[in-house]
Predict the structure.
Amino acid sequence: MKWDKDLSTRHGGLSARDRIVRSLCLLFLVAGVGILILTIVYLFIESGPGKGFPYRVLDCFTGEWQPLATPPKLGMAHAWVSTFMITGIALAISLPIGFGIGLFTSEIAPLIVRRLLTPSLELLAGIPAVVYGFFGAVTLVRWFEKVFQLSTGETILGAGIVLSVMMLPFIASTSAEAFRAVFREYRESVLSLGVDQLTMFRRVILVRAFPGLIAAAALGLARGVGETLAVLMLSGNTTAFPDSILSRGQPITALLATEIGETAVDSEKYHMLFTGALCLMLLVLLLNLAISFLKKKVYGTLYAS
Amino acid sequence: MESNNTPIPLFEIRDLHVRYGDMAVLHGINTDMPAREVTAILGPSGCGKSTLLRVLNRTLKLTPMARVSGGTVKYQGENLLSHPLGEQQIRKRIGIVQQRPLPFPMSIRDNVMFGADYHNKTRAAEKDEQVHTYLDKVGLWEEVKDRLKSPGSMLSIGQQQRLCIARSLANRPEVLLMDEPCSALDPDSTAKIEDLILKLKDEIAIVIVTHNLAQARRVSSNCLFFLNGTIAEQGKTAGVLNNPAHPSVQAIVMGREG
């Protein structure tokens, strides 16, 4: 039948309008993914691929940063270490607090508190990074100088704490959504058996919300690794190798942003900075892949046990 | 009216009113549900049947805005809504099977023992025995005995519903409430569940909400017919379904079965 062929078989029952919308969506998707690929391609081209490239990558992670020495030393080990320390501190603080806020706003808080808390958290996400930087500079930095007797209060720890506040809204709102959906689905069935709230939370809610919590952590992590301005302002932005959480540091994003402006195009330093950017980009992608893999794997074992 | 040889009714409901916010869902429910019988609750959608089950299982307050706004419910002679045993014990004793089966995210075995584990700690060997008993009771043992450790969600929907019934039975309830337990199921699973109800009715009291008049005939002896938040007709199932007095009930019964 003609009708069958036209609507059901060939186009899966889509009208002309449906097909236009579908094509547009596909176009946007291709454009989005295309930009991601182009970003990686351009970073790669500018990082000076060729004979010296593998060595440059190795140097990027392991070497010292002394661009004015002869010959210039262009390793960024100190920056990678700073980035990992700051992000680690930030996650360690914001994951438990964020999950706690998520649980509180999704289930425990009375409706009125929930209605006030949720928009305030969203506002927290809207504060510009530079404002966080100023805020950290007049609070944590000054306070650390007094408490830890430092000559300057700019520290890895301070940058990590402020970064944790910046990550908090993302972690809290994503985990709240995960908790809310799971509670809605299971609350009545579980509690109708007469068990208490903690048993419900431990044995059902946590297991089912787990993928959502991992997604929340991934979102926070991606944001934390990529954050530039606030950590630049608060970490001290020094090229020395950080030896404790109270030393000054320079995360990789801060190093790249600081140096790229005064670097000659196609110089060795220029290639090195792009190599750093490329590695950072790939690292974030890799982290996301690893997390989604972990999510499947851990969820599988949690579910089956 | 209560003579010495009639036992205390299971539930005595007097002038029960329930509201969701400003909307009255139940207004003035009066009934006695007999112990050791299957009571069917019939009526069109949205007339408060599930709400009544939630009141009896004490899970009404989990629905936002819902509250009992008047009347009393007695369970075995004791006030249900402020029962000295407390809400968790009541939920254990008056179990409920929901309309849509919802296995918990754990193995088939752990699903069966979820409530039972909480209410009485049992040793592993005893636990295995109970899992066997209750899965056998719902006719699921032969189908799942080789995969007790796989997730409950892997079962077919009819099997899931029987798993959920086993989970409620493992709690050793005194009453089992069933909220349209077969509405999502195929005829074969429905038949299995109806058989199960007939087997169980000697051990525990059962209250079943159903849309299916034929099902009510097959499994129940006592019957409440709901219309718009009140009971329009009640009594022996055969009487209610064969010669209803209420004109609307008559129309529904004739329309569906005539």
Q: What stands out?
A: Chain A has two domains: 2-46, 77-304.
